[in-house]
Amino acid sequence: MSEDEILAEFRASQALLEGHFLLSSGRHSAHYLQCARVLMDPMRASRLATATAARIPRELRQQIQKVVSPAMGGVIIGHEMGRALGVEAMFVERPTGTFELRRGFALSKGDRVLLVEDVVTTGLSSREAIVAIEAAGGEVIAAASLVDRSGGSVDLGVPFFPLVALNFPTYAPDEVPADLAATPAIKPGSRAQA
Ligand SMILES: O=P(O)(O)OC[C@H]1O[C@H](OP(=O)(O)OP(=O)(O)O)[C@H](O)[C@@H]1O
Ligand SMILES: O=C(O)c1cc(=O)[nH]c(=O)[nH]1
Ligand SMILES: [Mg+2]
Known about the structure:
By secondary structure, the chain is α/β, with parallel strands linked by helices.
């Protein structure tokens, strides 16, 4: 898929929101990519997962034994990536604040894992998920996401393959521009407020 085709999928699903958003990391932004909207159409989700999987070099792709993604945002794209790669997909979740495998999901020691996210902004959620996967015995050999919002700056400690990079500014709480601060921030994600 070309970048234009990918962006057309995002536009068609009205996933790009404008307003004042409190991101998972605690940073603020005037833009939010609501990937749940992109993934509402199962055929679109499948197309985007196939295109994301194709970003991973074949030699590395063939080593992947399991997909693990952080809930909630990672669940649907993780499942579709499992389908695209022909491996099982599971998710970590954080009912008590820290990611863990639940629901009978388990990894065997040394399982080679692809971490799959919907969006990476600061990489905080991805890094926390990697800690949980490694605590469960998995070896994270690569990460992938639909969107990289980090401006290419994120370091997850493993090779990272985003489908598309979208560079919207984000601001620390004490750096929010006055026009943005004039409207109350909404927090679309599920991470508990710090
Ligand atoms: O790279 P980061 O700075 O960590 O930001 C990206 C994370 O934020 C969102 O999740 P969120 O914690 O909002 O919860 P959700 O997955 O339930 O939407 C998104 O799904 C990523 O997991
Ligand atoms: O950083 C985030 O929390 C975030 C940004 C974004 O654009 N979309 C999203 O789902 N989460
Ligand atoms: Mg998330």
